[in-house]
């Protein structure tokens, strides 16, 4: 009832806007209808018009509009099922995530440092952070403007500054992926020992059900390098260690991790941030991959487990791999805590691993992962490109048909 009246209001709004022949700045419908690369997006907006109702409540919006090519890539992403099944709830959330608060021209989207821009996505499933889920805006060499979303997915700005009466449209080449929960991210970033330790200590439930969290997640190698020194800890001891990797009630993106900052971990001791050269250290552990967006905050991958018993540990920037900071560490052949992950349909592999096995071996930059949605989801990838592509085409056709049927 409420939904359908929203919808008809939005339809009326869209129709009204569309009927006015713009002399200067066009309205959204007029603008979109004239962009041959945005026909799928335009159809989608008409199919799910209730998101447009949010527009008037903001002082202008920036619409990151995926081009037609972007929709053809859906089968390779975690969004495949939602779009294939026409799941209105998920699609509405996805569309809201493409609306940035405020009007941002391309000139404002070329930051010196990463910028975390709030969107209109506020559904708690994807956005249990204060002020709306964010998209990371970064600049790549050659003034290439990138938007990083969930699972480290990267979308590139391909066409800038299409002004409309309510703001501006910026065209991107891939859909933004709304951030997932903690376990979805620990799994796609291969942080299985960290995840297992969260299960073992039952901290996973607490952390997953909190808003505004920051996690420092050691790569598997960090746990493996400790062996029994961590695997044999009592649950209380392990809880203290894991709590030292968790900051409650604060979402600290990389831009907040400035040199000399002290952060009070949930465990009760401070963590110290140190910058040296191009590297950033969390106590003595090196930051490997920063700013993995979580539905309820942010996660950063570090090379080693940090120790609340020695909060003053300092890095040695002269060496590439920082040493362990626990007594009696012995390199283990297996990955600690992976057997604590409950086994359901897709059980994580708990085999031995090479010493170099890590989510981002070689990644020494301090910001965003180069992972893409396609590399993060092995299940959708393994289906076979041919079949997936056909699904995508069929879906695009379906939206066309549904859109015309419902709206026109
Ligand atoms: C439309 O997309 C094609 C290929 O995706 C690209 O070559 C072309 O430049 C785009 N047109 C505009 C106006 O961006
Ligand atoms: C949030 O999104 C989920 C998944 O699409 C949906 O099931 C849920 O109803 C939404 N919650 C609200 C409050 O809209
Ligand atoms: C994360 O989301 C997945 C998919 O919805 C779900 O199966 C899983 O239980 C969630 N994990 C947590 C810790 O809530
Ligand atoms: C999550 O927190 C709410 C209150 O903040 C509580 O009612 C709910 O039971 C919690 N859920 C879990 C799984 O801990
Ligand atoms: C969001 O966080 C609040 C605590 O601030 C919690 O009560 C609620 O259950 C969380 N929502 C989700 C979907 O996890
Ligand atoms: C760790 O625990 C295992 C199994 O309980 C035991 O065999 C091993 O000796 C312990 N190692 C150390 C260093 O305490
Ligand atoms: C989340 O963080 C914001 C700013 O960091 C703060 O204003 C807000 O009160 C926090 N919310 C909760 C539930 O902790
Ligand atoms: C953490 O650091 C802050 C700021 O430097 C300081 O005020 C506080 O006393 C420290 N807390 C602990 C437990 O060391
Ligand atoms: C970080 O701060 C320390 C102490 O003030 C200083 O010696 C160091 O040069 C700073 N690092 C960078 C990269 O500015
Ligand atoms: C390390 O091993 C030595 C010798 O076995 C033992 O005395 C000491 O308590 C151990 N330290 C820790 C922190 O387990
Ligand atoms: C995940 O980690 C394991 C063990 O460290 C390694 O064998 C495997 O290749 C990694 N997988 C990916 C996708 O990085």
TrEMBL record:
Keywords: Signal. SMART domains: FAS1. One of its GO terms (cellular component) is fungal-type vacuole membrane. Residues 353-384 are annotated as: Disordered. Pfam families: Fasciclin. It comes from the Eukaryota. Residues 25-176, 178-306 form the FAS1 domain. Residues 1-22 form the signal peptide. GO terms for biological process: macroautophagy. InterPro entries: Adhesion/Biosynth-related (IPR050904), FAS1_dom_sf (IPR036378), FAS1_domain (IPR000782). This is FAS1 domain-containing protein. It comes from Coleophoma cylindrospora.
